Amino acid sequence: MEKLYEGKAKILYPTEDPDVLLTIFKDDATAFNAQKKGQIQGKGAINCAISAALFRWLETLGIPTHYLDCPQNDQMLVKAVDIIPLEVVVRNIAAGSLCKQTGLKEGLVLGNPLVEFYLKDDALGDPLLTWERALLLGVTDEAGLQTLKDLALNINQHLQRFFAQCDITLVDFKLEFGGDRQGRIILADEISPDTCRLWDNTQTDPQARVLDKDRFRRDLGEIESAYQTVEKRVLSQIERL
Ligand code: C5P
């Protein structure tokens, strides 16, 4: 099958139905705009399973997503959408680039969740945008930007509560959205330890508590077992709901 698109963590293939695409989740891991490359054994299947479970659950709460089905453990059938070239980041606790760029101390609990828009453009290094710059670039209009912000905050409320029930703190995460054939904005991409910062509430040590891609970014080791822990807790919490 001819690839439609290959990203750092996923490959997209067309299907016989023009409204449906097949996503293959890869074990490849990259960080720092692909300057650091590696593999996380079993990551593709784990991220696919976590994303599928969360997408299915969010749908039941009225959040539209691109999820359709998982025909294999590292494969997801999704609705074809026109991806909006923005990375929508929601932060509950200061970490990562927020600390680097502002000097805020890692771990500071933010009074209100912070929503940020980054331009999806590898060549430019995915720059942080202001609201006005996003409008200037024409990636979406004012109403579209507001819808993205509202959806991101709504999803954050649901996910924060869900992860808390898994004994995990949702520090921050990145979402991507697309426009479907009906012109609706729907949640796309994935929600996984690659795209979220997740801290284990059962650990107090700041390195031991890291259950996400920061283990790879910061060479903390035990990456596979961290991803497996998230998968186990998410899937068993989904079963309890
Ligand atoms: O690096 P930064 O602190 O801005 O990342 C914020 C959140 O967005 C983190 O959870 C990170 O995993 C996620 N992210 C992502 N893909 C990117 C940039 C950030 O999933 N290209």
Automatic annotation (TrEMBL):
Reactions this protein catalyses: 5-amino-1-(5-phospho-D-ribosyl)imidazole-4-carboxylate + L-aspartate + ATP = (2S)-2-[5-amino-1-(5-phospho-beta-D-ribosyl)imidazole-4-carboxamido]succinate + ADP + phosphate + 2 H(+)
InterPro entries given in the database record: SAICAR_synt/ADE2_N, SAICAR_synt_PurC, SAICAR_synth, SAICAR_synthetase, SAICAR_synthetase_CS
A Gene Ontology molecular function term of the record: phosphoribosylaminoimidazolesuccinocarboxamide synthase activity
Keywords noted in UniProt: ATP-binding, Ligase, Nucleotide-binding, Purine biosynthesis
Gene3D superfamilies given in the database record: ATP-grasp fold, B domain, Phosphorylase Kinase, domain 1
Pfam families: SAICAR_synt (PF01259)
PROSITE patterns: SAICAR_SYNTHETASE_1, SAICAR_SYNTHETASE_2
Pathway, per record: Purine metabolism; IMP biosynthesis via de novo pathway; 5-amino-1-(5-phospho-D-ribosyl)imidazole-4-carboxamide from 5-amino-1-(5-phospho-D-ribosyl)imidazole-4-carboxylate: step 1/2
SAICAR synthetase/ADE2 N-terminal domain: residues covered: 3-233
Enzyme Commission number(s): 6.3.2.6
First-level EC class: ligase
SUPFAM superfamilies tied to this protein: SAICAR synthase-like
Annotated HAMAP family: SAICAR_synth
Family the entry assigns: Belongs to the SAICAR synthetase family.
Name used for this protein in its record: Phosphoribosylaminoimidazole-succinocarboxamide synthase
Organism (species): Synechocystis salina LEGE 00031
Lineage: Bacteria, Bacillati, Cyanobacteriota, Cyanophyceae, Synechococcales
Gene that encodes it: purC
